[in-house]
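Team,

Forwarding the record for the chain on the shared tracking sheet. I've put the sequence and predicted structure together so nobody has to dig through attachments.
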Amino acid sequence: MHPSETSFSPFWWGISLDLAGLGEARPDLGTYGRYDYAALPELPVVLRGDFRWLEQADAWEGAIDSERAKENAVAVSELEFECARLGLALPEEFLTFIKSRALQMRVRSNTDCFLDICPAAVESPSGDGYLARFLADSQGCLFWYLFLPKRGQGHAIVVSPDFYGTPEEQWQEEAVAPEGIAFCAESFESFVCRFWIENELWFAAYEEQPPHPWAAAYAAAYIEGRR
């Protein structure tokens, strides 16, 4: 889905890339910053929905799959059942990734984000659709969701500092702020790709190693786009 097809404001909530030489475009605003979605570079990867590009990447211990692997395997089955009951179609690219530990273990996070699959799609407080949580920050700062519209096809990725889940999962005592839900990617695969690239950029800078060629191309495009 394109941002214009939703009612959510488009922003990219992400990590600072100051360490990778992108301080002007991605200054340090805390654990995460809310950055201009329109200024994001195009991804230097051809996306076909099958994650073939990710199969070439290194695998890591402590990747985003390691925190709740057993719980997520159960939750995915429940999510599929509940979505079918609602007449919602989960994106094939989402199922491809979520059912493959081999893919998940290639995505790491410098803020220790982890896969956290909600066992059901819950009605969104805005946007006329449903939210299915799939990724959480380790400190509960942010949560990422599939957005599935009630009418029509397609999906988008949205992000919020608020927790949306089933009644059994609820732990947030504060009232949620629906206006805080932001559009952050047109597809699940594009979100994973950008998330992967930006974290690889950060780790390469932190470890003083050359970045992956795709990450280097992404950084160069970011710089070029600001000239």
